[in-house]
Design brief:
Elements (H helix, E strand, L loop, with lengths): L6 H17 L5 H6 L5 H9 L18 H13 L6 H7 L13 E5 L8 E4 L6 E6 L2 E6 L6 E3 L10 E4 L6 E4 L1 H36 L1 E2 L2 E2 L4 H29 L6 H27 L10 H12 L5 H14 L4
Parallel strand pairs: 1-3
Antiparallel strand pairs: 2-6, 3-4, 4-7, 5-6, 8-9
Helix pairs in contact: 1-4, 4-6, 4-7, 6-7, 6-8, 6-9, 7-8, 8-9, 8-10
Length: 330
């Protein structure tokens, strides 16, 4: 399988990266946090760029691209820590009116494995509707129908505010069980892409700091122990890149491989890369890495949030083990 990007894919990735660097730079993260971690103007700009309508057919007002392209876009969004229910609104395009244009902000809940523990709703105050994945199908739940939702005072990620709901209405069933399973696989691949973006961003942040920070008259990047940390970060980043690209390609063309295996492999690999690279970045930055002003902590906290989206590392690792046992030749 050839994972080299086409010229069009490189142009797409570079355009999204340029936008993110200019609009959601590291210096703006504190400002976004103070605004409640949701910027309506930024949301509209992302919609205008086609982030939500990326995979809709052109005759439906979309861009007409595939999951392989969406993986590239969401990796860039993860890399810059773009806030908001990005994955859910992308999945809702074509299913919830206004999601593709950004006029309707759609969040969601993955209840495919049943309801376990508290119902945590991200960006609840900005939502218009929720997309709820259940074993029997996809349901749309209006935000106004959720009467009891209490804000979580100190969410893990300051750029992902949470509300805890005590109950959730059934809502309107808009699709069946097969589509619910398909949306969960697609959501998993996009969350993995964001984790890969975090792995790449933290590796670059650590390398840049190691080149500039001097100790004993030498850049700390020249010390063998730091070189080993940075090399491991790069390896994790590249393995995650391959796994995420493979998931996108396989979702576009299931004939090239097992979709469930490719998606779970991407979540496991990218999840580990995002978390471990974020921790290593803080270690390389030393005392600076523990300060609020340096964005390293934002990456780690977002990695923890994404780790629990559409199945945890352990759940997908168990899925991979079952698939491998059932088909040893895979």
């Amino acid at each position: 399988m050839d994972f080299r990007l086409t010229d069009d894919q490189q142009a797409l990735r570079d355009a999204v990266r340029s936008f993110c660097e200019g609009r959601i730079g590291a210096d703006s993260l504190r400002e976004l946090e103070e605004k409640g971690a949701f910027d309506p103007g930024l949301w509209r700009e992302l919609a205008e760029m086609g982030v939500f309508s990326l995979r809709l057919p052109e005759d439906a007002g979309g861009v007409g691209l595939g999951m392989a392209d969406a993986v590239l876009v969401f990796a860039e969004l993860g890399r810059c820590l773009a806030p908001g229910p990005l994955v859910w609104s992308h999945l809702a395009a074509g299913r919830v009116d206004g999601a593709e244009s950004g006029a309707t902000v759609v969040g969601g809940l993955d209840l495919m494995d049943g309801q376990h523990g508290p119902l945590l709703l991200e960006h609840f105050e900005q939502l218009d509707a929720l997309l709820v994945l259940r074993p029997e199908g996809v349901h749309r739940v209006e935000r106004s129908a959720i009467s009891a939702a209490v804000p979580v005072e100190l969410p893990l990620d300051p750029l992902t505010p949470l509300h805890q709901a005590t109950a959730l209405p059934d809502g309107e069933r808009i699709a069946g069980a097969d589509e619910a399973a398909a949306l969960r696989r697609e959501g998993t691949a996009l969350a993995a892409a964001q984790l890969f973006g975090i792995a790449e961003a933290t590796a670059l942040l650590a390398v840049d700091y190691a080149k500039k920070r001097e100790q004993f008259g030498r850049p700390i990047g020249s010390f063998q122990a730091v070189k080993h940390l940075l090399s491991d970060m790069f390896v994790r980043q590249e393995v995650a890149r391959a796994a995420c690209y493979a998931a996108g390609v396989t979702l576009d063309d299931p004939a090239v491989g097992d979709v469930a295996q490719a998606v779970s492999a991407a979540k496991v690999t990218a999840g580990e890369a995002g978390l471990r690279n974020s921790r290593a970045c803080i270690q390389v930055l030393g005392g600076m890495g523990y300060t609020w002003e340096v964005p390293a902590h934002y990456y780690l906290k977002r990695s923890w949030v994404l780790e629990n989206l559409f199945g945890t590392h352990d759940e997908h690792a168990e899925s991979l083990a079952r698939l491998s046992a059932a088909s040893p030749g895979l």
